[in-house]
Amino acid sequence: MAAFLSVLSVIGHILLIVLVVLAAVLLVILFVPVRYRLNGRITDPENRDEPLNMEMLLQRTTADFSFSWLIHLVRGGISYPQKPNFTVKILWFTVFGAQNRGGKKTDGEKTGNGDNKKHRSHKVHKNHEKNGGDDSASGPGTVQNPGAEESGTEKEPEIKTDSDDACRDKDDTGKDAEKKKETASGSGEAAGSSRMERLRCKLQAFCGKMKRISRNIRYYLSILESPRFEAAFNKVKDKVLRLLKKVLPSKWMLRGTVGFGDPEKAGLLMEAMGILWPLTAGHMDVTPEFYQYRCDLEFHAKGKIFIITLLVLFLQLYFDKNVKIIYHALRKDSKKTKKSRRSDNGGK
């Protein structure tokens, strides 16, 4: 009995340790933020008299986005124009976005090509063995007669003359002419009825489509005008705005010089900056150029995202009654329209 209790205590301690480890991992996943950084640069250091060219600006643009999680154990990013492919790394291993550079083939492609070559050579070798190893005896122009090999005698070919062929051609043309005369009388009446039938089917299909469209419009309008939709919309809008406040970069800066070659346009730029001043105070330092063209800008931003924030938002929307009812109503209507389209296609 004492041994049994000791075994149970050991199992209990092991389960407790496993639960503690799982709880620690879950807390780390939920409460350790994913940090991201965004940098962009348009290099245009000198004023010019020529208008701004989009191709030139793209050539002088550099940008990179990177993220990291758990002390850079998981990291990744994308940069333009150096590394236009999004990559994700865990420790020193690339788990997403790994591509060979320089157009080199992978080992799988190489082995696949080698296997195909071996398969083709094996087929050629088998055909060569079937033909008895003599390629000259069975060329592309020779035809073998198995019946002649079995009987040991060769059949004499039939000799056809030009007069026989001419007689057969005359008989065939005569029969075709008679068939055309017989069908010509009934073809006019059948053509008119078939055209009317096709036109009637097209009109019926068009009327059916218009009825479905009007029914869907009435259905969606009834949903949009319902008080339940208004409550669900306000709920989703409130949660999305809160999410944006927590997800958008907490620190960002835009600085540089911009000129459009016209004092009026420079004044409009300053007016827009003044309107946005309550939102951009301390984050924007752009100097306008009044008489020449220039676009020399630099942008830096960084922020963090908590997984627990996304999870809480999802659960709040998922268990909201109004959101759930509206979602199922829209999904049900989409399923009905898909079924009706499938039935129409099947009927055709």
Q: Helix count? A: 10
Could you say which overall geometry the principal axes of the C-alpha atoms support?
Answer: flat
| Major beta sheet summary | 8 strands, mixed
- Low-pLDDT ranges: 100-112, 130-164
Strand content: 15-25%
Distance between the termini: 77 Å
Give a count of the beta strands, DSSP E runs of length 2 or more.
Answer: 8
Please tell me the overall pLDDT.
77
Task: Offer a quick outline of the entry.
The chain is α+β, with helices and mostly antiparallel strands and 348 residues long. The chain has helices at residues 2-31, 54-59, 107-130, 146-151, 162-224, 227-247, 263-275, 277-280, 307-318, 321-347; strands at residues 34-42, 61-69, 74-80, 87-90, 93-96, 251-260, 284-289, 293-305.
Overview of the molecule:
The protein has 348 residues and is α+β, with helices and mostly antiparallel strands. Strands 5-4-3-2-1-8-6-7 form an eight-stranded mixed β-sheet. A hairpin with a 6-residue loop joins strand 3 and strand 4 (87-90). The protein has ten helices and eight strands. Helix 5 (162-224) runs antiparallel to helix 10 (321-347), helix 6 (227-247) runs antiparallel to helix 9 and helix 6 crosses helix 10.
Features:
about 350 residues, alpha+beta, eight-stranded mixed β-sheet
Topology:
Layout (H helix, E strand, L loop, with lengths): L1 H30 L2 E9 L11 H6 L1 E9 L4 E7 L6 E4 L2 E4 L10 H24 L15 H6 L10 H63 L2 H21 L3 E10 L2 H13 L1 H4 L3 E6 L3 E13 L1 H12 L2 H27 L1
Parallel strand pairs: 6-7
Antiparallel strand pairs: 1-2, 1-8, 2-3, 3-4, 4-5, 6-8
Helix pairs in contact: 5-10, 6-9, 6-10
